[in-house]
Amino acid sequence: MRTVDPAKHAAKRRAIVDAAAGCFAEKGFERTTTADICRAAGISSGSLFHYFPSKRAVFTAIFTDDAVETAERLEAAAKAADPWAALLDVVAELAGQLAHPAVVRLVLEAAAQAARDDEFAELIHRNDSALRDGLAVLVERAEDAGLIDPGIAPRAAAGWVAGLLDAMISRASLDPGLDLAAEQAILRTILIRFLRPVSPPAGG
Amino acid sequence: MRTVDPAKHAAKRRAIVDAAAGCFAEKGFERTTTADICRAAGISSGSLFHYFPSKRAVFTAIFTDDAVETAERLEAAAKAADPWAALLDVVAELAGQLAHPAVVRLVLEAAAQAARDDEFAELIHRNDSALRDGLAVLVERAEDAGLIDPGIAPRAAAGWVAGLLDAMISRASLDPGLDLAAEQAILRTILIRFLRPVSPPAGG
DNA sequence: GTCTATATAGCGATAGAC
DNA sequence: GTCTATCGCTATATAGAC
Fold this sequence. Notes:
The structure is a homodimer.
Chain A: H1 6-27, H2 34-41, H3 45-51, H4 55-78, H5 83-96, H6 101-114, H7 118-144, H8 154-174, H9 180-195
The first copy, chain A, binds a DNA duplex through residues 4, 33-35, 43-51, 53-55.
């Protein structure tokens, strides 16, 4: 038995991060005050800085935590029997997260912050790179199975798949009344036409 | 002869906006101080607030000015003989602007600001809507000429063309060493495969 | 129209009791 | 570990001379 309970500490840390994520999504990093975070989390300033050394550390924690979840998703997809179906599934799942406006806003905020903070940019680039790597594995496996146009480089293709997800983020933020399901269908069409062989070897 | 020279006033205003755009691109809106803008423009605080009522007004001026230029581009494209070629040209021209890192950063900053400032969001949405309208006109004209898959709605297609440009912005910001020319070629491929008839009526 | 000087307010982070 | 109280600093915008 130890003086501190690591599980309790982690749970509280997580609660603070979740509360802060809502604030950052709503007002952005700079306009969110540490007082806002404290109010949202129901704690005092002293407590906040007991768990995190700075406001920025709270912000970055959101994205280190998220990276773990995405990595698990990609790992599971890599084991799937049908790599092409797994690719479409992963894309649909990631696109589905955009139904939450807070997620859209957080991604936009992260992109803006990464453009001017080198350390944070490294984190975001690592996350993006991990996503592209995971997607590239699926593209390669699908290509080996003859399900993808051989003229397309897996790595470049993976970059554009990630880019298409970013396109959806920008559409979702620019058009609040966007029909996400309809756009996901179009996204699927674009992926099929972009990646599949010009004369498919089989139906699908 | 008047007491104030409108041309001179406009020129100075423009000089301030240009200097400020550099600051905003580098540090973002909130972390750019009015003192930064004054230093970059070579003026004093008193002068800055003689030309603009607030820091935010300087920021928005960047995007109202840009809207005019884009509108002119689209107007010219609408008059072109070959609407399909004009569409590809406009996309290439807009994508080409991303060679300037400052442009990429400004767009990201604008997206983040629009997510939390309703008045600024209206401006950005108007600009985006004007872009989509201009692209939709080209898609429609190309469709009338049998150059585009009839199963694709022009308005939705235009949204995704704009989205693909946003995808390129995100790629450019996430990957500093990105080969822009190579990516533009892929973008072109995606557009052709996405929009053109499945069995083209002619070469091209 | 341009400047210098400054009012006013709010922020991130710390100190130290309990 | 959590709290209250507050320090030290920086920022936007204004006032008013020239």
